[in-house]
Design brief:
Elements (H helix, E strand, L loop, with lengths): L7 E9 L5 H11 L3 E13 L2 E7 L2 H14 L4 E4 L5 H12 L5 E3 L17 H8 L5 E2 L3 H8 L9 H9 L5 E5 L7 E6 L4 E6 L10 H14 L4 H17 L22
Parallel strand pairs: 1-2, 1-4, 4-5, 5-6, 6-7
Antiparallel strand pairs: 2-3, 7-8, 8-9
Helix pairs in contact: 1-7, 2-3, 3-4, 5-6, 7-8
Length: 267
């Protein structure tokens, strides 16, 4: 008897050859959360625990062909975007998303965990004007908030102002990730009317490579399973907190979170 397919989630992002972030992290997260992950590769990076040694974006026609191949045949229940590299790729992906009837989680990746740039400065206007307006949820970290809006978050009290600045570009919800603040790890999710605060203890583990990709993919997995946005974010926060707690050393620098941490937890 043929088993019914699980919910399907498409990630549109770059490859991390070290396996901790990007497409690799997205697909691991989706598998861990019970959805079928599919991918559109936008760029290839030479990357390890020490940083990004090189990046090469794919042609727009390759990105478009991958997207149409998956969506037209298999279909999607949610889409997640990550590294899009350049203005032409941002605009190509935004056009494709606007014609797709599925929730979209936009992780506006600007720099890597090590501070390496992953988005051309010339692409920022395209992200603001084309990509964010098609997002169901935008998930910027504090550096990306500043990059996109000019708002600097110095403490928890600035998160509302940051969220308002992001929402002004058109996403339905903004999830402002406060992981770079001191104290507990606090995130704010809002659509401009409702507010949901998500808190977790700050964990003493430097091996956090891939947290942003993992969180956005976990939110997309929840949306694909039919959860409301606040519930999808709550589940994603719990999953990422566990993955950070289980993060492990790899290579000579910052290791990844453990996407399979639940597999080692006794049932």
């Amino acid at each position: 008897m043929t088993r019914q397919a699980p919910p399907r989630v498409l990630t549109v992002a770059g490859s991390d050859s070290g396996g901790g972030a990007g497409i690799q992290a997205d697909l691991k997260t989706m598998l861990a959360l019970g959805v079928h992950g599919m991918s559109v590769l936008t760029a290839v990076t030479a990357q390890n625990s020490l940083g990004v040694q090189g990046a090469w974006e794919l042609p727009e026609e390759a990105v478009r062909a991958q997207y149409r191949s998956v969506v037209d045949d298999i279909g999607v229940q949610a889409v997640k975007t990550g590294m899009l590299a350049s203005a032409p790729l941002v605009e190509t992906v935004a056009e494709l998303l606007a014609a797709t009837d599925a929730p979209v989680v936009v992780d506006p990746v600007g720099v890597s965990k090590h501070g390496d740039p992953l988005l051309a400065a010339s692409a920022l206007d395209s992200v603001r004007e084309r990509l964010l307006p098609v997002a169901t949820v935008a998930t910027p970290n504090l550096d990306e908030v500043t990059q996109l809006t000019g708002v600097r978050v110095e403490g928890e009290g600035d998160l509302r102002r940051a969220a308002d600045a992001v929402l002004a570009f058109g996403p339905r919800w903004a999830l402002i990730k406060g992981g770079h603040l001191t104290g507990e790890a606090v995130d704010l999710l809002t659509d401009g009317r409702e507010e949901h605060w998500f808190r977790a203890p700050r964990l003493d583990n430097r091996h956090t490579h891939g947290t942003g990709c993992t969180l956005a993919s976990a939110v997309a997995a929840g949306l694909a399973r039919g959860l409301a946005v606040p519930d999808a974010v709550r589940g994603a926060k719990e999953y990422v907190t566990g993955a950070i707690a289980a993060g492990f050393a790899l290579g000579g620098g910052i290791g990844p979170v453990d996407h399979g941490w639940r597999l080692s937890v006794p049932s």
